[in-house]
């Protein structure tokens, strides 16, 4: 991956996700404009940018919450824009959220089981009659869910309501729930938000483990530059909905446009609240 | 731990003393300011005050000590107080009966003290005449007074317990307590009710209690089972001894008897619910055969008692045309078959999972529930039927509101559709106009038109299903043979491949054609007549009612898919009213406000009276049990989890792969179908139905029972139905204040237990998962389908 730009990699490895000229408008505001992104298999790709740059909007377009007005989103060779979120999940894209959105009234176990939903085939009738196939499937799902909880070190709290879990556990549970759908591509929206440096470090290791052990491709939104630069194979920088830079962490760091966007070189540019957070 | 318990026992005793002290002070104050005190008012007042003070203390202790400590304290303190009281009573009675006058000590306090203490009015507390040594009986003389140490009981000399704030009793309990044994029984009864109440709390807070396991009474299986058996003992005492000559009933009830019996029937149901939840998945170290035996023997015994009741009292619930009053043999056989099924089910479950205690509790509870209806009279049966129907409605609405979180205020519509469907299919009634001229349809069960319609529908559905099934099979086989694989987006979306639109259209067309031809061919012959003329209108009505309601559920679901919360509530409310107004205004078809009359019960036409009531009750119980079973299974299934996720957050659920359209429609359809069953049974119970039976109130009532019982909780809904539908019937004594008291109860309930009486505890799956994972260490099926 040394010095290889994503476009060159596509020749070797087919892209898992490809966004072409994606535009999403809210009224007159262009949240995402003419965006191109290519994410290749087993990459960790990051999307960074100041607040309001359109990162989460991009995620929402990919996961089907928004339908882009223009452009197309190709997943594993097939266009997915315009599909419903549940269909997109069934195809193999899972995501987490910037603000944790667990199912509060359900236990950790149940949360993960909902994640497995799209991999199960049981019908209500099968459940009513307690058909053998349904039971078998349910047992497999239960074991799968339990193993996922073990994977994130939460097996001991499998029967705890999601709301009663510690913050860090909730973050991990959300990832486990996303993993439960057995995705090819995982979208992580600020996985380290609200974490201290040590937890951030642990999360970084965890994300690498995900990629390596579960053969995942990961698209990441992150504000922690240290983490982004260390972990990413490819970084895309957004500002005002446009892509202003793209490349390896090194390339991006040296890009004057990026520095301008973040530091606001001309004094009248936006003052990023982000750097002060750092 | 022992020390801790002693400590809290003394705490409780102190609480009691201080409660009594405060009560006494207030009473003295009242006397001083000139409030006239009558005995029964005094009793009521101190009871209320003590309860209030105890209630506050218990609530406070609850916060500090947890339920286990409270329960053990309550029991210990009750026991101590009870024993002391009994001793005192026994002494007073015995001395008095032997002519030793101890009355004057008590009379120094008050003329009535001795009455209260001995349970016998003062004027009757005279010495008994001497016993004739030859005959061993009392010498003739003064009327014989209750002897506390004999099971003889004289109703006229016993204390009548009445409650009232004025001279006239407002609420006459009609409990006549005779002597020592009567009081003993009352003690047992009160502590039983208290224990059950406390237990309900515990069952409702299982998680918290588990963490305290081992402390106090809760963790002790012997005490647990002892309490568990108390209702059985009580049940036996209460009914089995009644009217059997040899043993006089200890506790007699006069006019309030049937309400009290009903109340006890309800208590037994609640007890069963609590027991079933409380039971642990232990196996108690018993072998499989021993476990089955331990389950089978008590079930058999209980059912034997039931058979005895059937034979002894002719409480039959299955009637044939030959035996209009019901067949004892058939009823007994049915009871035995049900018992066998209960035992067999427990045996199966225990073989698979090794659980004993919970299965034992379930089997025992079900067996008791099975024979309870045999002990009810017609009025009680009717109330129970109503409660059962409301359980069905509640469980149905629970799926829509409790599981899927869709606030449906027009739920009564499906209830009405079920009821009217059965009515249309079974009633013989002609609809008349104002001049008494028949203007409408004749809804005869065996009407030719209806039979033809049913025949057509059945045949077309059957043949079409056959044709489509065969076609699909052929298509799949062919496709596999040719190795054809579709590519592109469609293939990605289809994890289980489906035939293309063309193939589907062809199949459907073919199916329609063939079924039409078959149906037409059969139309000329007497096939339909043969098929349906013997069919029970009830079964036809039941199937049709469920289908109609279910389809209506989907039809309502489609337009409201995008609505949530308040908006959904308004639209469904409108839907409910529309259906009612349709039934009201489409006079020619539905009979309008005059309703549909003469709907048959699900028994042969010449059967009436008790057997038909009891049949209906058993059908309702069966239906409610099935619906409860189905609800539980759905809840624990993929569908149920999707509902639950949807209720929590619709958008996130969708992004987890939940198909919102499918999930919502399924919830609406299943909920509506359950209401349809309820409607059919309601029509059968009422025999005449009117649009006015299906007002908005019904929706609200069902919704309240779901909320009060505990949303999403099956035992909660059952309890809600009993509290909301059953209690008002039992409390008819309170007459006009009924609804007022009831409203206050609801408000208090919602404040004290905002999550319902028996809320659903968090699902416990980890244990099972661990076991499964241990048994089957194979990795999960990650690559089950091609991507």
How do you describe this structure in short?
The complex is a heterodimer of chains A (278) and B (787). Chain A is α/β, with parallel strands linked by helices and 278 residues long. Chain A has helices at 6-12, 55-63, 85-91, 108-116, 124-129, 132-151, 167-180, 197-214, 225-231, 249-254, 256-263, 273-277; strands at 15-26, 29-40, 44-48, 70-75, 78-79, 93-95, 185-189, 217-221, 234-239, 242-247.
Protein traits:
heterodimer, A: 278 residues, alpha/beta, Rossmann fold, six-stranded mixed β-sheet, four-stranded antiparallel β-sheet, 22% strand, globular, disordered N terminus, disordered C terminus, B: 787 residues, mainly alpha, three-stranded antiparallel β-sheet
Largest sheet of chain A: 6 strands, mixed
Helix-strand makeup class of chain A: alpha/beta
Q: What is the subunit organization of this protein?
A: heterodimer
CATH overall fold name of the largest domain in chain A: Rossmann fold
How many strand segments of chain A? Answer: 10
Radius of gyration of chain A, rounded?
Answer: 19 Å
Read across the widest sheet of chain A, the strand sequence of neighbours is 6-7-8-3-9-10
Structural class of chain B: mainly alpha
Can you lay out the helices and strands and say which pair or pack?
The complex is a heterodimer of chains A (278) and B (787).
Chain A: H1 6-12, E1 15-26, E2 29-40, E3 44-48, H2 55-63, E4 70-75, E5 78-79, H3 85-91, E6 93-95, H4 108-116, H5 124-129, H6 132-151, H7 167-180, E7 185-189, H8 197-214, E8 217-221, H9 225-231, E9 234-239, E10 242-247, H10 249-254, H11 256-263, H12 273-277
Parallel strand pairs in A: 3-8, 3-9, 6-7, 7-8
Antiparallel strand pairs in A: 1-2, 1-4, 4-5, 9-10
Helix pairs in contact in A: 4-6, 4-7, 6-7
Chain B: H1 2-32, H2 39-65, H3 67-97, H4 103-109, H5 113-118, E1 159-163, E2 171-177, H6 179-204, H7 206-211, H8 221-240, E3 251-253, H9 257-278, H10 288-313, H11 328-353, H12 357-371, H13 378-403, H14 412-426, H15 448-482, H16 489-493, H17 501-524, H18 527-532, H19 537-557, H20 565-585, H21 587-590, H22 610-635, H23 638-648, H24 650-655, H25 660-686, H26 696-709, H27 714-730, H28 738-752, H29 766-775
Antiparallel strand pairs in B: 1-2, 2-3
Helix pairs in contact in B: 1-2, 1-3, 2-3, 3-6, 6-9, 8-9, 9-12, 9-13, 9-27, 10-11, 10-12, 11-12, 13-22, 13-25, 13-26, 13-27, 14-19, 14-20, 14-25, 15-17, 19-25, 22-25, 23-25, 26-27
């Amino acid at each position: 991956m040394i010095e290889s730009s994503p476009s060159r990699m596509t020749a070797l490895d087919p892209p898992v996700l490809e966004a072409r000229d994606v535009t999403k408008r809210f009224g007159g505001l262009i949240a995402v404009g003419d965006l191109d992104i290519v994410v290749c298999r087993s990459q960790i790709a990051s999307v960074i940018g100041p607040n309001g740059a359109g990162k989460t909007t991009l995620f929402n377009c990919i996961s089907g919450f928004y339908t882009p007005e223009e452009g197309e989103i190709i997943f594993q060779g097939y266009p997915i824009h315009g599909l419903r979120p549940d269909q997109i999940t069934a195809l193999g894209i899972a995501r987490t959220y910037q603000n944790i959105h667990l199912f509060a009234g359900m236990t950790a176990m149940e949360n993960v089981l909902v994640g497995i939903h799209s991999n199960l085939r049981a019908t209500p009738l099968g459940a009513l009659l307690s058909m053998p196939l349904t039971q078998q499937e349910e047992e497999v799902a239960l074991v799968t869910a339990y193993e996922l909880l073990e994977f994130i070190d939460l097996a001991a709290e499998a029967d705890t309501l999601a709301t009663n879990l510690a913050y860090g556990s909730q973050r991990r549970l959300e990832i486990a729930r996303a993993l439960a759908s057995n995705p090819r591509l995982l979208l992580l929206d600020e996985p380290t938000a609200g974490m201290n440096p040590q937890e951030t470090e642990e999360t970084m290791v965890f994300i690498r483990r995900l990629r390596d052990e579960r053969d995942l491709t990961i698209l990441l939104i992150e504000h922690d530059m240290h983490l982004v630069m260390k972990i990413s194979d490819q970084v895309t920088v957004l500002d005002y909905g446009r892509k202003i830079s793209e490349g390896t962490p090194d390339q991006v760091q040296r890009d004057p446009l990026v520095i301008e966007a973040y530091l606001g070189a001309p004094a009248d540019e936006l003052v990023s609240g982000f750097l002060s957070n750092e | 731990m022992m020390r801790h318990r002693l400590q809290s026992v003394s705490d409780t005793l102190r609480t009691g003393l201080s409660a009594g002290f405060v009560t006494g002070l207030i009473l003295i104050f009242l006397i001083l300011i000139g409030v006239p005190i009558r005995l029964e008012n005094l009793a009521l007042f101190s009871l209320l005050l003590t309860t209030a003070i105890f209630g506050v203390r218990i609530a406070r202790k609850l916060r500090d000590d947890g339920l286990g400590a409270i329960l053990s304290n309550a029991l210990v303190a009750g026991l101590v107080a009870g024993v002391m009281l009994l001793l005192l009573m026994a002494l007073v009675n015995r001395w008095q009966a032997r002519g030793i006058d101890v009355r004057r000590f008590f009379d120094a306090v008050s003329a009535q003290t001795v009455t209260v203490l001995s349970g016998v009015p003062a004027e009757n507390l005279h010495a008994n005449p001497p016993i004739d040594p030859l005959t061993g009986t009392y010498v003739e003389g003064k009327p014989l007074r209750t002897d506390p140490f004999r099971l003889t009981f004289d109703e006229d000399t016993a204390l009548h317990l009445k409650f009232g704030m004025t001279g006239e009793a407002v609420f006459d309990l009609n409990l006549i307590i005779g002597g020592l044994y009567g009081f003993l029984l009352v003690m047992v009864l009160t502590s039983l009710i208290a224990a059950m109440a406390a237990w309900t709390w515990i069952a409702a807070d299982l998680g918290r209690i588990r963490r305290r396991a081992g402390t106090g009474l809760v963790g002790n299986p012997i005490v647990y089972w002892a309490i568990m058996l108390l209702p059985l003992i009580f049940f036996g005492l209460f009914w089995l001894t009644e009217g059997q000559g040899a043993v006089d009933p200890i506790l007699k009830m006069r006019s309030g008897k049937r309400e009290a019996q009903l109340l006890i029937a309800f208590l037994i149901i609640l007890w069963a619910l609590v027991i079933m939840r409380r039971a642990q998945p232990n196996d108690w170290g018993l072998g499989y055969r021993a476990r089955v035996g331990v389950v089978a023997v008590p079930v058999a015994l209980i059912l034997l008692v039931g058979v005895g009741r059937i034979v002894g009292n002719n409480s039959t619930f299955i009637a044939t045309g030959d035996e209009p009053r019901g067949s004892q043999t058939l009823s007994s056989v049915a009871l035995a078959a049900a018992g066998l099924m209960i035992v067999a089910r427990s045996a199966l479950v225990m073989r698979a999972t090794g659980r004993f205690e919970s299965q034992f509790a379930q089997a025992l509870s079900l067996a008791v529930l099975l024979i309870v209806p045999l002990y009810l009279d017609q009025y009680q049966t009717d109330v129970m039927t109503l409660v059962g129907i409301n359980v069905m409605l509640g469980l149905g609405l629970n799926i829509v509101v409790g599981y899927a979180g869709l606030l449906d205020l027009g739920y009564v519509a499906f209830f009405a559709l079920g009821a009217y469907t059965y009515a249309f299919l079974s009633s013989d009634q002609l609809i008349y106009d104002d001049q008494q001229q028949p203007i409408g349809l004749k809804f005869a069960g065996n009407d030719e038109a209806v039979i033809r319609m049913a025949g057509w529908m059945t045949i077309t559905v059957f043949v079409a299903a056959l044709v489509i099934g065969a076609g699909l099979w052929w298509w799949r086989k062919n496709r596999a043979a040719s190795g054809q694989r579709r590519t592109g987006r469609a293939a990605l979306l289809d994890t289980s491949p489906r035939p293309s639109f063309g193939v589907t259209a062809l199949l459907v067309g073919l199916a329609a054609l063939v079924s039409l031809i078959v149906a037409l061919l059969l139309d000329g012959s007497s096939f339909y007549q043969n098929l349906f003329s013997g069919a029970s209108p009830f079964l036809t009505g039941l199937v049709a009612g469920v289908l109609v309601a279910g389809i209506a559920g989907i039809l309502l679901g489609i337009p409201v898919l995008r609505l949530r919360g308040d908006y959904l509530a308004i639209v469904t409310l409108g839907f409910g009213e529309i259906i009612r107004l349709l039934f009201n205004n489409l006079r020619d078809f539905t009979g309008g406000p005059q309703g549909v009359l003469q709907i048959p019960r699900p028994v042969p036409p010449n059967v009436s009276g008790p057997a038909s009531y009891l049949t209906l009750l058993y059908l309702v119980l069966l239906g409610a049990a099935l619906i409860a079973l189905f609800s539980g299974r759905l809840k624990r299934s993929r569908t149920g989890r999707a509902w639950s996720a949807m209720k929590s957050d619709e958008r996130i659920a969708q992004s987890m792969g939940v198909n919102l359209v499918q999930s919502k429609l399924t919830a609406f359809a299943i909920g509506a179908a359950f209401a349809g069953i309820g409607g059919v049974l309601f029509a059968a119970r009422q025999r005449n139905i009117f649009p006015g039976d299906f007002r908005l109130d019904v929706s609200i009532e069902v919704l309240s029972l779901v909320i009060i019982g505990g949303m999403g909780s099956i035992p909660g809904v059952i309890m809600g139905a009993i509290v909301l539908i059953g209690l008002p019937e039992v409390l008819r004594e309170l007459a006009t204040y009924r609804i007022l008291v009831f409203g206050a109860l609801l408000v208090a309930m919602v404040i004290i237990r905002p999550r319902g009486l028996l809320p659903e505890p968090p699902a416990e799956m980890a244990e099972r998962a661990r076991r499964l994972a241990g048994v089957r260490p194979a990795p999960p099926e990650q690559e089950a389908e091609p991507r």
